[in-house]
Structures are given as C-alpha cells and as structure tokens.
Amino acid sequence: MPTPDGARPLVIGVGQPDRGDDALGLAALARLEGEAWGGVDRVAHHGEGLGLIALWEDRARVVLLDAMDAGKPPGALLRFTPDSGPLMARAFRTSSHAFGVAEAVETARVLGRLPASLVLLGVQGAAWDLGAPLSAPVANALPGLIDEVKRALAL
Predict the structure, then answer these.
(1) pLDDT in tens, 69-79
(2) Domain housing 130
C-alpha cells in the first residue's frame, strides 16, 4: 500500500542557481540525488515563503537546506529549529525575497502549519555575487551538510 505523502520526510533545497553561495541548497540536493534513500521526497525551491509553507504543509518531517549569513566563518554549518529564536531570522537575510524562510516559519507557526519536525540546515556563505559559483568554503562544507541531513532524518 502506498505511503501518504505526509508520512514521507521532505528535504527542501532552497536557492538561486546563479547567485554564488545562494545556490547551496540546490547543490546539496544534487548531491543527495546520488543517495539511495527510499521514502524521502526532495524538492528544489527558490525560497519564497508562501511557497515553502505550501510545500511542507501536511508533512510530519521536513529538512530545509539553505545558505545563511549568521556572522559565522564561511563554511560553518548551522542548525536551527523553529524555536531557535532571533538568530534564525537574521541568518536567513541572504534571500532575495522579502517574505522568505524566516518569515515562512513564523507565519506557519501562527497559522498552525508547521511540520511536527522542521530542521533548517545551512552553511555560512561568503559570496552572493550574480554569476559566481559556490565559494570554496561552502563547497567544502557540502559533505558535512549531507551528513547532517542524514542525522536530521535519522537515516
């Protein structure tokens, strides 16, 4: 019997492919494509908040991957949950959207539409220039990010 989508964990890779380290979530999803994880859905998203809420609605477990700017050294791995407080909101200010990841989390909280388990994983970015590739520290952090995804999903 097929598993309802809500029971399947979801990994969302957030980013813009042509904006330097902002492509982190998409690069991480590309690495995950090589992993044989049955029962885990994966989707790329540009980071607009209402779209994120629609993606995770009715999901029990969601892991969101994105580049962040939390004032840490480039390449630092960061882990947040909806209860992480003000640092989380500041860390997601690299988005090109006025209503992005942090706003989606807070809006979903108010509306009662947060997943039972939401983990936001990211890497401190260094370069956000149009047309730039991932910076070396962010690219080097990808294997550790993938390990954190596995831990968050208990795989």
Answers:
(1) 888 999 999 99
(2) 5-17+30-153
Instruction: Look up the CATH number of the domain holding residue 129.
Output: 3.40.50.1450
Task: Look at residue 24 and tell me if it is in a domain.
Answer: no
pTM over 0.70: yes
Contacts (Cβ under 8 Å, ≥6 apart) of 137: 73, 74, 75, 124, 126
* Contact between residue 42 and residue 31 where contact means Cβ atoms under 8 Å apart: no
Contacts of 117 (CB under 8 A, 6+ apart): 60, 61, 62
Cross-strand pairs, 117: 61
Q: Are 58 and 49 in contact, with CB atoms under 8 Å apart?
A: no
Task: Report the alpha-carbon distance of residue 123 to residue 111 in Å, rounded.
Answer: 28
